[in-house]
């Protein structure tokens, strides 16, 4: 068998391929390999960093590299061990660089940047998961392991709060059946291994989350809210906190709307409706959109798409509708349902004006469960009301509606309508996302939803407001300006051309 070689990008300064060495050396399998390793040790090219492990890396790189290769090290050196306790839930070293493994003895093996802590305990069960050359405790077993109350095992376990959140997340995404399956399997494991106290704790925790046992078992805010009948999506509220913090502490520009004339408002509403629908894939040529909105000419081939763009225009061109900003949670729900009913009136199959009643997703993104819509909106609304009026609230409420995703369809358009209502009601420049800027908009949203980075979203919308700070009359002149500045071009075809031009009569 050949020596295991962990690959790492090499600098191109190395001229002789024969000098490229593995970064980690595991026990030799042949005499030839042993002789080669001995020669490398004598030549000072590799050195021992722990039991049965050598490296060719500089000392400054060893700790971070070894920590990152923990699973390979376990797989190569201790394939009979079972990844257990907190490590079976986290699949990474703890903050103290520890990986916990169940084995036949209690011992500790240290490497630079990594400690393998072995715990004497039961061997792997049939449903403990294969991982590399070793196995990891199943979720039911790992839950029981982490509920041990011994002082000597405290560092092996995640906090009860974390267990509660993990179970709550499983309940959110997979339903009550999943938690009942975990409890049933854990009961069997507890009987087999004698972990009765641990099972009692798990049973009480799952029962509290499902509403069949006392809620006093719960310690997280989301768990208690669930027990009160007001469940919310804690993953979303954590993102709300990130965005809220930035919007609360960073001063944002205040841009007044350039004009309040009838023509300006009408034309800007037209382009807002046109581009907002384009983002969602409801695309028309600009001439077609003009006929739909200004001439009320509905194409026979695409009546639903036409009603989408017309419904959006009817809302954003109505000063009364755009002055509606929520004063309470009930008000927020009433406003978004009203807007949705008007926007999606041409699509009865998506239940206009009503929340979704089935979980939905896009790719690997699961949206807020229907049971958690009101609770999550409530949590978001608390943060919204604590922000300054204007752009901070506009950005936040747009993300709140988009992230909760309360409807079967039309969520993005409703989110942008709510954003611009915040601005319109304060006499500030409303925001349009041109077609050429669509990918910037979507990427900024993903930066927060997938990578917990709010700054790109804020910067993108600040820029979008700046480029939208134009006078939108007369119509022909503003259309020419938007065309020459690439507003109607696809992102793959052109870049947005920015200008301080304010078109005026």
Description:
The C terminus is likely disordered. The chain is of the alpha+beta class. The chain has 3 domains: 102 residues, no CATH class; 90 residues; 251 residues, Fido-like domain (Fic-like fold, Orthogonal Bundle). A 6-stranded mixed β-sheet has the order 6-7-5-4-9-8. The protein has a 3-stranded antiparallel β-sheet with strand order 1-3-2, covered by helices on one side.
Number of helices: 20
Mean pLDDT value: 91
The level-1 CATH class of the largest domain: Mainly Alpha
Determine the CATH topology of the largest domain.
Fic-like fold
Shape: elongated
Number of strands: 11
Which key phrases capture this entry?
505 residues, alpha+beta, Fic-like fold, 3 domains, 3-stranded antiparallel β-sheet, 49% helix, disordered C terminus
